[in-house]
Amino acid sequence: MRKKAILLVALFTLIGSACVSPTAAPQEPTATSAQATKAPIVLTVMTHDSFSISEEVVADFEAEHNAQLQFLKIGDTGTAVSKAVLAKDNPLADVFYGIDNTFLSRALEEGIFESYSSPILAEIPEMFKLDPENRALPVDYGDVCLNYDVAFLNENAIDPPTSLEDLLDPIYKGLLVVQNPATSSPGLAFLLTTIGHFGEDDYLNFWRGLVDNDVLVVNDWETTYYGEFTRSGGTRPIVVSYGSSPPAEVYFSEEPLDEAPTAAVVDPETCFRQIEFVGILKGTQNRTLAEAWVDFMLSPTFQEDMPLHMFVFPVNPNAGLPDVFIEHAVIPDQPVQLSPESISNNRVSWIQAWTATVLR
């Protein structure tokens, strides 16, 4: 009985407290509730057409910072850089993501970015940091490599190439398709691979040899991979693509696959590493929120979401990779490297020389 009496006293006490007079002083709003009453700040992120990230990750950032993200897709990397430069006195966005090391120097010379030393940069390996002033901060990387149709080469008793020089062998005559470097980012990356490997004095001789060996040149990656590549019904079993293409084949396959039907050639100096950067555009009116977004892009939350959306690799070593990358992607140990300054100073002349040699 004593226990019941105690319970009844407690119950009436709770009821009494719930019936407090309406004249009681209201509670002060918490910081969280006060923030929720404010209209979200719109942050515009300019990027290339290939940008993709999960809605959940975007929602996490927006909720944490009371923000509304707008993604402004401009075109390919070259087009996006050109538009950012033209609009630098009246920027189109607060942040620009997607500029890579083939266009980095132009953007830095034009002064479109504000410097920002994100605290997360301390976690990023030095090899990815190409701007000592931290105007452009590394976010991801990927390797442009030769890919081949495993079944086709096996059925025709052809060993996959293990060097660029192998492509000049008559056994590969009529088997290779590449992209035009004047119109394609991976095409430009492959051209840079040949320049880095053979040097400026000899790379055109290599391309002359490819022409003699019946190389096919098309304007874009989509046409090479989904039109000319034997995996898609074409006639060319060797294609310039990405080191992440084999895991993409497995991931998007309609039927479960234990092995990737394609493989990337990752032998020394057969690939070119593209590094993509993010920068705060000069003149932003949302500097604090822009910094928060840059930090977020470098954080494991964003970095771990990227691979299965854009099939690139995170630069933050604390970010884990999805299983399909771990099982089917191979990262080259010795990709070709050219400085952004060298690329910027010579890109036009290299493409012009290539055009005169290959498309004559």
Structure, explained:
By secondary structure, the chain is of the alpha/beta class. It folds into 2 domains: 159 residues, 3-Layer(aba) Sandwich (D-Maltodextrin-Binding Protein, domain 2); 158 residues, D-Maltodextrin-Binding Protein, domain 2 (3-Layer(aba) Sandwich). Helix content is 40%, strand content 17%. It contains 15 helices and 11 strands. Strands 1, 2, 3, 4, 5, 6, 7, 8, 9, 10 and 11 form an 11-stranded mixed β-sheet that branches. It is globular, with a radius of gyration of 27 Å. The N terminus is likely disordered.
Précis, in short:
This protein is an alpha/beta fold and 360 residues long.
Uncertain stretches of 5 or more adjacent residues: 1-31
**CATH superfamily placement of the largest domain:** Periplasmic binding protein-like II
General shape: globular
The fraction of residues in strands falls at: 15-25%
Give the distance, in angstroms, between the N- and C-terminal Cα atoms.
Answer: 103 Å
The helical percent reads 40-55%
Structural class label = alpha/beta
SSE order in H/E notation?
HHEHEHEHEEHEHHEHEHEEHHHEHH
Number of domains: 2
Oligomer: single chain
| CATH architecture descriptor text of the largest domain | 3-Layer(aba) Sandwich
